[in-house]
Amino acid sequence: ILNYDIMARFRRRTCIILLLFILFICSIMMALKTLRPDRAGFGDPFGLGLLPELQQRTVLLDSKQNLLNRAQGDTVTRVSNLHSIAVNTMKASMSSVKKLEEELSAPNYNFHIFYYTWYGNPQFDGKYIHWNHPLLPHWDPKIANNYPKGRHNPPEDIGANFYPELGSYSSKDPTVIEAHMKQIRTASTGVIVLSWYPPGMADENGEPTDDLVPIVLDHAHKYNLKVAFHIEPYKDRDDRSMYHNVKYIIDKYGSHPAFYRHKTSTGRLLPMFYVYDSYVTIPEIWANLLTVSGSQSIRNTPYDALFIALLVEERHKHDIHRSGFDGMYTYFATNGFSYGSSHHNWASLKAFCDSNNLMFIPSVGPGYIDTSIRPWNNHNTRNRVNGKYYETAFSAALLVRPEIISITSFNEWHEGTQIEKAVPKRTGQVVYLDYKPHKPNVYLELTQKWSEKYRKEQEQWLM
């Protein structure tokens, strides 16, 4: 009888424990069901926030399976297999998210952005280049005497009013070029307009950079970007030297898949060259190179291209037409600084170009400040107004329906026109400007926004 009572009590206790365990399992499963995200698929617009949700779901799946395994007596191997499947799923989904993000920021080959490779630091160049820019004196000695002289002293003190997220970098650093191409692609711009001097030449504060062109082309191609050339005003630039420049660039770089060619209205694919300070050379010299009857004519040769002149003053539009250029751009990011950079003049310039078979390429910028190198130039500062200045420029550009919009600039730090990521920084007596209250990538995001807006509006123009 005693043994019977013991067995009966044991069975009752076992049933109670088993019942409690089953209730415990059911409650856990109900809790898991309640916690499960409502969205079962991966079709959220633009793929935003997918990765955190996927990680959460993987953790919950692991927890649920572990509990079930304990209840059913499954082996550890099954848990391991399930975890492996979950990890593989997450990797596959990460890949699809990455692909979706790339589709979101598809390059817009009608957005051209000016890019500079003239920066250097001791690690890659043996010294600082351009970050230690001198303070430029005013041309009037009486005014110049009222302002400081000397040079900047990197890395804490650089020749810029903003401070780059990448620090006082070298343009030779492959990781910097990679980061730049990624940022440019994120901004949905498609063509890098590379500042270029002939081999062995440079600006007065820099070093020759032509040897960097191949690595820029390679990294640009990786991100499906194209590269055009911005011919700088080197000493004695004329029709003959320009012919040799164009021949050199096309012969050396023209076969690279990232080399930019523009499809004209006649269906031709031609390289494009922006010519900075083109007005310094008289129209007759340019006509030798750029008109069919010119003595150095490049027209209808293997080196024919689209040549875009810089328009500063209104009278330059007639000189540009007479010179044989294919179009004009305005470059400066200072609304009101020059005739060309003044937004209210763009409609008349576009009308002039349309009537003379020229391209009009307005240049938009996020703002302007160069007092770190021209301390006397406060009157040309253009406040960014937390991005509003940039958006106003884009809006003005879209109103004239241009075939191409150029952006000044990706990284002209000396003049404060950069859209590259910048960070807050305070050092000694220097307090750098920044993009607050926004994040360092705000101008990349604004560029991407207007790139998409341009695409949509362009579809309407072409209807």
From TrEMBL:
One term of GO molecular function: glycoprotein endo-alpha-1,2-mannosidase activity
Top-rank EC class of the record's enzyme: hydrolase
Location of the protein in the cell: Golgi apparatus membrane
Gene name for this UniProt entry: Manea
Keywords: Golgi apparatus, Hydrolase, Membrane, Signal-anchor, Transmembrane, Transmembrane helix
Keyword Transmembrane helix: yes
Protein name: Glycoprotein endo-alpha-1,2-mannosidase
Domain of life where this protein originates: Eukaryota
Catalytic activity of the protein: N-{alpha-Glc-(1->3)-alpha-Man-(1->2)-alpha-Man-(1->2)-alpha-Man-(1->3)-[alpha-Man-(1->2)-alpha-Man-(1->3)-[alpha-Man-(1->2)-alpha-Man-(1->6)]-alpha-Man-(1->6)]-beta-Man-(1->4)-beta-GlcNAc-(1->4)-beta-GlcNAc}-L-asparaginyl-[protein] + H2O = alpha-D-glucosyl-(1->3)-D-mannopyranose + N(4)-{alpha-D-Man-(1->2)-alpha-D-Man-(1->3)-[alpha-D-Man-(1->2)-alpha-D-Man-(1->3)-[alpha-D-Man-(1->2)-alpha-D-Man-(1->6)]-alpha-D-Man-(1->6)]-beta-D-Man-(1->4)-beta-D-GlaNAc-(1->4)-beta-D-GlcNAc}-L-asparaginyl-[protein] (N-glucan mannose isomer 8A1,2,3B1,2)
Major subcellular location class: Golgi
Membrane topology: Single-pass type II membrane protein
Classification via PANTHER family: ENDO-ALPHA-1,2-MANNOSIDASE, GLYCOPROTEIN ENDO-ALPHA-1,2-MANNOSIDASE
UniProt GO cellular component terms: Golgi membrane
Keyword Membrane: yes
Organism: Loxia leucoptera (White-winged crossbill)
Assigned protein family: Belongs to the glycosyl hydrolase 99 family.
EC number: 3.2.1.130
